[in-house]
Design a protein that fits this description.
Helix content is about 70%, strand content about 0%. It has about 400 residues and is mainly α. Helix 15 crosses helix 16. The chain is globular, with a radius of gyration of 21 Å.
Length: about 400
């Protein structure tokens, strides 16, 4: 217990330090936070106005004494207003500083916590490299930090839900899954995870989540009416403006449809093969597949959604921990984002959004079939930590 208290205190101290750093350094030099339109939209909504009906242009910002916004539209699920309510009640500069501090904290802490829950004591040098590569060695992590984006929070909620499901903390797991719905692709990932939980007869978690999301949705409808059509109109606006696009379209529409179909078949095939695994590993295998499929087949608004690939990367570091070339290859994949930025070629940005998850999907498939061939399908978590000396367990 004392160790947990000390660890929790250290995490809070780090969050405070990162938030203060953001307030003193980042906020004064960065005005175009993605966080700002959501803060403004949530505050508008708390006053009973429809945030989808407003355009947060320079005139609006000037009249309300707000900094300029990089995005002029709310374009998030209205439920975010109640899910992240404490943030919207704070002054905008303090709120964004706390939020950016949280992003950095997630990148610094999440891989260590995942490895610890999997019972893997990674070598200190490797762990340091993974943490640094996740936080600053990957351009997309730096980008979401300076923009105050919401992708890292969804990623953290998915990892937290996995941990809490293993601990059988139904209420907390449902809250974590609720938090992951603040972005549209996060809501889709949660829907598939809930379907998996239903099939595994984890009815309590699903029921609690349904009650929570139902309550939050009802509150939003009571405030601004039925807002779903307004949300989809905003999505359509982004498509028309070319702000969101299918990553596969880089090869043309005909080939794009073929790639999407192939990726969906690949994902379903792996998920069906993984269904008999115990929760300890099945959830992470499944989340990794779902994330990569989502990134390849759904429209993406920006390449910062590639931050989601951190989850399958961290997981594959553990899965392939006894393969010499595995960690260097994954760290190199993370670093390629900076090469794309250095090249400054628009077509490379588009290619990266498809080729990055495609490469990781290929590596994940390799690890999966290797795992299947050298592992027992019904191995327990204790066997992960205490492998059979014959070498037949998952820890091989």
């Amino acid at each position: 217990m004392r160790q947990k208290v000390l660890l929790g205190s250290l995490v809070l101290i780090l969050w405070l330090a990162f938030s203060i750093t953001a307030y003193l350094w980042l906020v004064p030099i960065q005005t175009n936070f993605d966080f700002y339109p959501r803060w403004a939209g949530a505050n508008v909504m708390l006053r009973g106005e429809n945030p989808y009906a407003l355009v947060f242009d320079d005139a609006y910002c000037a009249s309300h004494k707000l900094p300029p916004f990089v995005s002029e539209h709310f374009l998030y699920l209205a439920t975010i207003t109640w899910i992240l309510l404490p943030l919207w009640l704070l002054p905008i500069k303090i709120a964004v500083s706390i939020w950016c501090g949280l992003q950095l904290l997630i990148f610094m802490v999440a891989p260590s916590l995942m490895f610890a829950r999997l019972g893997w004591r990674a070598k200190p040098l490797l762990l340091a490299l993974v943490v640094m590569a996740s936080a600053v060695g990957n351009y997309h992590s730096v980008n979401v930090y300076v923009l105050g984006q919401f992708v890292p929070f969804v990623l953290a909620c998915l990892l937290l839900a996995w941990w809490l499901l293993l601990e059988n903390r139904s209420w907390l797991a449902a809250l974590a899954l609720l938090g992951a719905t603040i972005r549209p692709e996060g809501a889709l990932l949660v829907a598939v995870i809930l379907l998996d939980l239903l099939l595994k007869r984890r009815y309590k978690v699903v029921a609690i989540w349904a009650g929570l999301i139902g309550t939050v949705f009802l509150l939003t409808v009571l405030q601004i009416g039925f807002w779903i059509p307004d949300f989809f109109n905003g999505v359509e606006f982004y498509k028309e403006r070319g702000i969101s696009s299918y990553p596969t379209r880089v090869f043309g529409e005909g080939i794009s449809n073929f790639i999407i179909a192939a990726v969906v078949v690949w994902g379903l095939s792996l998920l069906l093969q993984m269904r008999s695994l115990p929760d300890e590993t099945r959830l992470l295998w499944s989340m990794s597949v779902l994330i990569l499929v989502t990134l390849m087949v759904l429209p993406q608004t920006h390449d910062y959604t590639l931050v989601y690939t951190l989850l399958p990367i961290w997981f594959m570091l553990w899965v392939g921990r006894n393969t010499m070339w595995n960690a260097p290859l994954l760290l190199c994949i993370l670093a390629t984002s900076w090469l794309v930025i250095a090249a400054d070629q628009p077509h490379l940005f588009e290619l990266q959004q498809l080729l990055n998850p495609l490469a990781l999907g290929s590596l994940l498939t390799y690890h999966w079939y290797r795992w299947k061939n050298y592992s027992l399908p019904d191995v327990s978590y204790m066997q992960l930590q205490h492998p059979d000396p014959t070498g037949s367990s998952l820890a091989r």
